[in-house]
Amino acid sequence: MMDKDRIEGAAKQAKGTVKDAVGKATNSPKTQMSGKADKAEGKVQNAYGKAKDALK
Known about the structure:
Elements: H1 4-25, H2 29-55
Helix pairs in contact: 1-2
């Protein structure tokens, strides 16, 4: 079973990708930066979940 951090991290990455694309399409740097931040946070959380899974 996958760790909940991996699932939540993947979801944040997906949300960030969408926000980034919307920011580019609407020429909104604020939305684009928010998307990039969400993607980065999701990657960190996903990596944390993978590490926890590896220890199990």
